Amino acid sequence: MSMPRPPNEPSLATWDCMLPGPPSKNNCGSADLSSAGLLAYAAGSSVAILDTHSMQLVSTIPLPPQASSTVSPFITAVRWSPLPLPHYLMESENTSSHLLLAVGDRHGRISLLDFRSKAPVLSFDTNNPNSSKLGIQDLCWIQARPDSWSLAAISGPSFLSIYNTATGRCFFKYDSSPEYFSCLGRDPFDSRHFCALGLKGFLLSVRLLGDDSENDVALKELQIRTDASELQRLERDSSSGSNSGAPASAIFPNYVAKFAFSPHWKHVILVGFPREVLLFDLQYESVLFAAGLPRGCSKILEVLPDVNMEVFYCAHLDGKLSTWRRKEGDQVHIMCSMDELMPSIGTTVPSPSVLAVAISQSDYMLQDIRKLCLGTDSFDTDFDNPFDFFDESPIISKTHLISISDDGKVWKWLLTAERLRDAQKDIENVKKASEVRELPVQEVESRSEGFPGDLGVLKSVTQPDDTNSRENRQSGPTTSLEEVSFKVTLDGQLHLLSSAVTMLAVPSPSLTATLARGGNSPAIAVPLVALGTQNGTIDVIDISANAVAASFSVHSSMVRGLRWLGNSRLVSFSYTQGTEKTGGYVNRLVVTSLRSGLNRTFRVLQKPERAPIRALRASSSGRYLLILFRDAPVEVWAMTKTPIMLRSLALPFTVLEWTLPTVPRPAQSKPSRTSSFLSKEDVPLIGSSSPTTTSSTDAKEGADGSHEDFAESFAFALVNGALGVFEVHGRRIRDFRPKWPSSSFVTSDGLITAMAYRLPHVVIGDRTGNIRWWDVTTGQSSSFNTHRDGIRRIKFSPVVPGDRSRGRIAVLFYDNTFSVFDLDSPDPLANSLLQPQFPGTLVVELDWLPLRTSKDDPLVLCIAGADSSFRLVELNVNDQKMGVLGPQVRPTKERFRPVPLPSPVLLPTPHALALRMILQLGVKPAWFDVFSATMNDWNTPGTPSAGDLRGYMIASPRVGDSVVPEMLLKVLEPYRKAGCLLDDERVRLYAKVVKKGSTLRLAFAAGIFGESMEALFWLQLPHALNHLMNKLVNKSTQRGPHTARTPEIDEASMLSRISSKGKSAPGSGKKNLLVNGQLKLMAFEQQELWERANERINWHEKLEGEEAIQNRIHELVSVGNLEAAVSLLLSTSPESSYFYVNALRAVVLSSAVSSSLHELAVKVVAANMVRNDRSMSGTHLLCAVGRYQEACSQLQDAGCWTDAATLAATHLKGSDYARVLHRWAEHVLHTEHNIWRALILYVAAGGLQEALAALRQAQLPDTAAMFILVCREIHAEFLSRLDSDEDATLLKNKVVNLPGLNPENEDVVAVGEYYGQNFEGTFGSMWLAEELQVKVEA
């Protein structure tokens, strides 16, 4: 897929730290969990990206606004790109296409966001002539060609559009009105196919044949019957409102319809309406199962199928999760458990709502690999690891589920399936009985634990049934779902911002501030920011980790004021109105200790007060607090261990601000207090003779025993425009006499609304946009007009010795925009950073981060956005004109993480490829140890020296130059030391995998990068190769005079199968419905295909209608049950339009004994039927006369590929069956674009050379080389298991080389040469020197 590169220009701003606000219902529950374990969900107008393995916030990407708008709309749809990690590097192409996000918003925009640049790389053409704001409801990626993907989108209530992701052009539109579209879903069996579901049961099946025009889209309209009476009532109620462009989730937020494709059965989807669950068969266009929710059960929010088992989960609007298991023998599901996704302990009242739920799609792959590793170093098993369990354990399957609540929490749940005790005892008895058999214990263990040796024939003469042995080995003892219990446990949680941010506070302790635990040690500046929220909690943000360090539930209502007392205490307030009888306000003041987590209230009154608290102002030392009331005197408090009120100041204050910490300078002189108070002729003076200011308390020891030998001052403004400065010394308050300004200092007519004070400067702003500042020691002053709205906040920037300017201020206006001015410059307005709007959101609060230690450090602004997000913005102050620092101006510091981020998919693409190659070739587990460098000193045998890293590679066949692995290990060394490659769980699994051969290593490497289909391919490759080798051996033994018959499906068993009655079939009985769900995607063996086809027949027996009967006949003929097919054909009513065709088929099928004349007549009739587009009927006639090869060809021509394979599995053998598989592989590769399924079919059909050519054509050189390596390894192991007699020696000579993979083959030689040259040149010249140097320096 070709994607435009992101722009090279730096963005307007870079965020070293950004925390998203909590998601809401306006985000429509948009979330997507990638196969690599990355969760992306919408929070306001931003997308939060989490690593679900370590439950850490990786990044937050804000969506920029439109050019004509100032605020970004809510994001309503998020979908990860399905593109895998590229397997080759090209300098001219963007190599981050596997980390693209498709994002849709409430205004109808669709963009592709790049994770690396955090910016849109493509905006789709979504202009609608009817309405400009059709909100996006859902998105879905569809594969149009092998190298390109398209994007389907639901916009508005009923529009479906499909876009070309290379150009952004819309090439298909569909209007379903008056139906409301609800969601989209892609078929896991065919990436060209997807469905769109409506709230009233309308189902649109879409198959994409290209991405050029409407002619490339095939549609099929279906209808699922459901009760829509509630929806009709909601439609009548909402008809009065204007919801023309709103999506269905916005019009009906509590009426949801969801569906998901079954990962186990093709053409089957799971549908969840608000109060009903259904299974719908797309092929039969019928409902297989329907059940209403029990009484008391809330409406359905999401439907989630389990990949490991035939179980699905329903998330409900009330935060509960129901588990539905399948009843054995039929497609009927029963609710077996109900669990809570929102714990009642520790949550607020009312309980938060669950907005979105996602189930992991990667856990099953690691479980399959772990089961194949059983028996290897069992003493290494970690019982605390949720995925480390024995086959004898009652635990059958474990899956992770992620839920997102509207209080900013992301929950990680572990869904566990366990055997019941009685079933466990039966399994143990079966195992004990199996140990008493005549087979040696070693042979049993090799069959059940070895890999890949257990996948093939142990001996050429005494071969067990390969299919049954493989199924028993992978599945273990058969367990029905009735014998299983399901549990849900909390496995992790990530706490982000809990509510809309109302207040922001930054600690800026002065040198006189002391630690909270007492003593005279000065308090230091800490990288913490406190946020007050609307729900009454206080979230403390750790800037260095970009995470919520602590959250305190302090108030029951909105936090209206928040200030730091030093660096370890917080003071906050809220108020509520009294009752109608009492009236007034109940003010609540709380001091919160960050160390102990205790909340202490003070100033507790018995009755409501007349005036509410307006604001809090805390001094830099944290010792004094000013409490401002609305129309009431200001109170001055000493914030000792037990707060004490010092004074009450009855003046009409408008603003009050304490002085900030001064710039540390040597021998700084104190300001003069002899000058009179600042005033103009028309400004009233407030002298020391005022009775309010003269009275003061005596200087003595404070309540905490410390001597108060210092003073702090605060500036204020009155309603009439008068200014003043008071000083608090101990418990005394006195007038600070500044020097009067010059006569040019003119008072504004506007009310003073904001002030900032840092000795010796006072800066004030008014409601008309004027800014005035004055030096209280020299009397110098100046002013200018910002030509903006009223000023709400003024904040002095922190300064350090050597700063060029000490007068930089950040100004927040009443229109929620901000600017930064330099008051030391001649023209502050010309040299300011004018930021009329922050990209995508308005600013609610701002302050500077006081962590600068050098004049070269940037200025950092803390911003609380109107979208409830928290961000940091760096400003470049080294240039002559201030500007926002771009990402290419200064390298961003690496964020501190308490826990490493072990997500390989997030590594730079060259480094991710390096790790992938190292895991494929095999590295010793000791290399992952962070302390392995110190372990070298122990002289452990086999441990490489400090300079040579090649000793960490295991002894395995090499591909390419041996120097390449050492180069890759050196490149990955910084990540290894930081522990950022793999987490402990996956390292322990790899320690077992590395000992089990190449196939498991390759499957593991694909699995951790989220490439599940490739991992399945490697797991199925040994089965397919052994299938091919069995076929070659059987073909050779049939020519020998004294060879035993191999257990192929022979003619006698085929005849008995044809004459079988009813539903009985070999291998039927109790099925294991619990494991190997995804491995069925790549089924190719005859027995497996035939059994699955027989199982599908039982589902459709109760379906009615002519089309259903025709499909049933087709299924019966495919599995060879001709008697049941004839019976069904003869039951056709004479009035039916199918009567004559069915009668003809019944006569011919019943005459299984054919003659040459009869065969000729049937061939003519079949040819006529095919000419009349009756391919299925002609197929059945050909089957009646034994022309199965031609019948399979006709089915394949008609597009019935699975049916053709089923028919071939029933009737064909040898090269005839291989030809069917080979043509099927061609279709899967070139039409369905699924290279991994095609490779398995190629290998099973003997087309190893075609498989190798497909890998080369797909530009996968490393995979092609690994393919040859694994095939030779499996081939050699197969030959080693043959007997040593003469016949076996003859067989070895005949199959000494794999067909198509001879060492002398030109393609094989070319692959090996290209592999070595490509990766040695790529990693050596492209990034080995540059990337390693940059990473080490960072």
Automatic annotation (TrEMBL):
- Locations of Polar residues compositional bias? 669-678
Q: Which PANTHER family match?
A: WD REPEAT-CONTAINING PROTEIN 11 (PTHR14593:SF5)
- Where in the numbering of this chain does the WDR11 TPR domain appear? 927-1317
Per the record, its GO cellular-component terms are:
cytoplasm
Q: Which SUPFAM superfamilies match?
A: Quinoprotein alcohol dehydrogenase-like, WD40 repeat-like
Query: What is the designated name of this protein?
Result: WD repeat-containing protein 11
Q: Which domain of life is it from?
A: Eukaryota
Q: Which residues form the WDR11 second beta-propeller domain?
A: 496-899
Annotated segments matching region Disordered: 441-481, 664-705
Pinpoint the WDR11 first beta-propeller domain residues. Answer: 21-494
Q: Which Pfam families match?
A: Beta-prop_WDR11_1st, Beta-prop_WDR11_2nd, TPR_WDR11
For this protein's source organism, the top of the classification is: Eukaryota, Viridiplantae, Streptophyta, Embryophyta, Tracheophyta
Compositionally biased intervals (Low complexity): 688-697
